[in-house]
């Protein structure tokens, strides 16, 4: 055999191995209904631990039927990150609208807070926003939480007005 034929055979073999590794069904990492060891895994329809419906390499390039749409108001999202910029962001999930921060002290304040924000709806509305503030000693007061929610909504409206002037 010539080196050229060996090279072609090796190339064809490696391509077949790569394509065959893409096929097959993948499960969530354990028995049905059990989350994988690394945490919750979602398939292309957003259900936990399910099987992936893509069965061949050509299905990747076709239209997706079960993709999620993001139902989060972008102005509230940006305003939340802007108002709570003094808190270190630990986790964000734009698909569910959750922002989780670590402890931080506001400028000019003496008490440290952490926040969990849930943006539930695409509307620029107070019902779309749920803020949970905690101090190191427990939940923050309702007045403080309300003030943060009001600041986020006011900033979201400012951002929206700024976008409409473009």
Please sum up the structure shown.
This protein is α+β, with helices and mostly antiparallel strands. The protein has helices at residues 3-22, 74-83, 142-164, and strands at 89-93, 98-101, 113-119, 129-135, 138-139.
Structure overview:
Pfam families: DUF3576. This is DUF3576 domain-containing protein. With about 170 residues, the chain is of the alpha+beta class. It has two domains: about 5-60, no CATH class; about 75-165, 2-Layer Sandwich (Alpha-D-Glucose-1,6-Bisphosphate, Chain A, domain 4). Helix content is about 30%, strand content about 15%. The chain contains three helices and five strands. The protein has helices spanning about 5-20, 75-85, 140-165; strands at about 90-95, 100, 115-120, 130-135, 140. A five-stranded antiparallel sheet has the order 1-2-3-4-5, with helices on one face. The model is unreliable at about 25-50 (pLDDT under 50).
């Amino acid at each position: 055999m010539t080196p050229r034929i060996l090279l072609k055979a090796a190339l064809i073999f490696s391509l077949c191995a790569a394509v065959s590794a893409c096929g097959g069904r993948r499960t969530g990492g354990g028995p049905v209904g059990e989350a994988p060891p690394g945490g919750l895994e979602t398939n292309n329809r957003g259900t936990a631990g399910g099987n992936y419906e893509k069965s061949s390499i050509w299905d990747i390039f076709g239209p997706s039927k079960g993709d999620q749409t993001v139902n989060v108001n972008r102005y509230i999202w940006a305003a939340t990150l802007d108002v709570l910029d003094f808190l270190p962001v630990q986790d964000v999930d734009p698909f569910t609208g959750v922002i989780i921060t670590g402890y931080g002290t506001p400028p000019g304040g003496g008490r440290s807070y952490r926040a969990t924000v849930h943006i539930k709806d695409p509307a620029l509305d107070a019902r779309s926003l749920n803020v949970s503030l905690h101090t190191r000693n427990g939940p923050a007061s309702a007045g403080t939480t309300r003030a943060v929610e009001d600041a986020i909504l006011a900033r979201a409206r400012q951002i929206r007005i700024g976008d409409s002037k473009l």
